[in-house]
Amino acid sequence: MSRNCLSEGCVPSKAIIESVHKYSILKNLGEFNIDYKKIIEHKDKVQKLRYDDHARELNDAGLKILKGTAKLIDDNIVEVDTGTGTERYRAENIIIGTGADTFIPKINGSELTVTSHDFYSMNPKINYVPRDITIIGGGYIGVETGSFLSILGSKVTIIEMLDRILESMETDIIDKLIPLLPNMDVKTSSEVKSIEKYNDKLKVILNDGEIISDVVMMAAGRHPVLPEGLDDLGIKYTKHGINVNMSMQTNVKNIYATGDVNGITPLFHAAKRQSIVAANNIMAGNVPVDYFDPLAVPFTLYTIPQLAYVGILPAQAEKLGIEHHEAVYDMKKDSLAEINNEIYGEICLVFDNRMKIIGGYVIGNDAGNIINEIALCVSKGLGLRDLAEMSHQHPMSFEGLDSAARKFY
Ligand SMILES: Cc1cc2nc3c(=O)[nH]c(=O)nc-3n(C[C@H](O)[C@H](O)[C@H](O)COP(=O)(O)OP(=O)(O)OC[C@H]3O[C@@H](n4cnc5c(N)ncnc54)[C@H](O)[C@@H]3O)c2cc1C
Questions:
Q1: Do the domains 66-99+223-294 and 104-220 sit in the same CATH topology, yes or no?
Q2: In this structure, which residue's CA is closest to atom 3 in ligand 1?
Q3: Per CATH, which fold does 305-405 belong to?
Q4: Would you give the DSSP letter of residue 106?
Q5: Spatial separation of the C-alpha atoms in residues 289 and 359, rounded to whole Å
Q6: Using a 6 Å cutoff on CB, does residue 10 contact ligand 1?
Q7: Does the pTM exceed 0.85?
Q8: Which atom of ligand 1 is closest in space to residue 102's alpha carbon?
Q9: Three-state DSSP class for 173?
């Protein structure tokens, strides 16, 4: 349970990144070394704790977990291959939550590469800081991994076939983040042709050169894991995932698809919210009474420093023809940023002509926490005045929110 997030995703990657982040703050205060093996031990311990927690929760809820591979037989029957036989289950409603997996492009030598699994699973293969690493793919997984490895002394090269990294995020915002990131060589508009062994190292052959490193990480994206039986039932899907409406229903009324498998917002907290939406709509008799709002889902890029955003951002507002304004707080003047010696970045609240907050982003100290309050404003239709009138604690990172809003009140 909590498969990807706990086995090789959110929890283990952040157990490492949070430790490295603290190290990056403390190393400014004197001679200070950390032992990566100890960080890995800590990560494994956190994973174990959370697996145990989940097992207890499931047990307390009286849920039955069956280990096996499920396929859809018809719109009421699921068949599970348990390895020792098959079992059939009949249900009025079905939720598909089969997630996503690492996409491995068809490149000669891709079997020589490692993935997030090798960094973040329990007892991971990569339990040391590689001297040098080539990361194929400049999406969030590659850039987060490269960011902490660089702080720990790895020579990091990121290869991206598009003309910039973090391509799904707004260019203007990424352009503000990039100069703040730890040192990484980024090669854009560059395509990997093949990977081969080169003495005791690996050689990545590109359309425009080659790179030699100890380790090559494949972080070229993720793809939905589609269960067997979708075509027979006529359930519609694309390469991004199973098509659903915002009540999480597929085109077959009693079959829902939640989480990464629908590709809408492949994040743990989105998967959780979508599952609750599906459950509410099922309990209402397949009548939509609850909806998922992708615009209210915050995203944090756990680089060091972090970038977080939610809702409609300036370039998107422009594209949609929404008249919008920005309330900006300079993190260089923030007390907690100064305390943590992270004196850079900004908070930006995006609001419309009615002064309603429609989105926002944060770069720098505590970004991933601050964004939650902006997300609440977006989802509940709160305005700039609501933030301006809030007395956020001092000295805490959230006080930038009322400071930004007060510029207009
Ligand atoms: C390196 C990394 C870092 C990440 N960091 C973050 C983060 O910081 N924050 C965040 O919000 N998200 C993060 N994510 C994404 C997050 O892990 C996913 O969004 C989340 O796990 C999706 O949950 P899910 O339930 O949809 O799918 P999953 O967690 O993938 O679970 C799907 C389950 O279905 C099972 N399954 C598949 N097919 C079948 C079948 N036919 N029969 C039976 N079982 C089947 C799978 O084995 C799996 O157990 C990260 C992911 C990665 C890889």
A1: yes
A2: 9
A3: Enolase-like; domain 1 (3.30.390)
A4: -
A5: 25
A6: yes
A7: yes
A8: 53
A9: helix
